[in-house]
Amino acid sequence: MVRGERISRSLDETRALAGELAAALQPGDVVLLEGPLGAGKTTLVRGLAEHMGVDPRQVASPTFVIAHEHETPAGTRLVHIDAYRLSGSDREELELLGWDELAGPDAIVLIEWGDRVADLLPAEHATITIEHVDECSRRFIIEIPASWDSRPIFGRRTTRCPVTGEPVEPDAPHYPFSSERARWADLYRWFSESYTLERPAEEADLDQGQ
Question: Most buried by CB count within 10 Å: which residue of 27, 88, 135, 153?
Fold first, then answer.
């Protein structure tokens, strides 16, 4: 699994993250949404639905219905499942609803409390854990199969600035540096020969700076 983190400080930032996720997800994907009650799992699903062309007002917590299906303009089914009250033999209810069809190759499946139906999940699935940071902020911990790593949002992950050591989020304008000042400080180190290469420079090394 590959792991990354994002901090959202507002609903607008959560919607923006949902848009990036929506662009990266593909039919056949299964995503678990974990976090305490009120963390914002259904809010994230609404954002994903909106960016996939589904009216977000149609998305509600499916606690009492177990599963909701939404057809996107692209023809992909967006399946929203809440497994909160499923445990033990109750998982048979999900099987009776037609799990194999719900999670078909034409569907993107989002499951809240997915750990309760772990034995039904495909080996390759993603997990998004939402944690409270403060009243307005949430931390999104995104874990994906290695095979998804080349997809747009997963190409960059939260890192630490090589100059200041501060955390840098994937959408930071100076990524992987924490600021323009840090970027210039790193460049100065190269010019002042503070950095050394363990091998002769190759043409490919020069291309990376273009």
Answer: 153
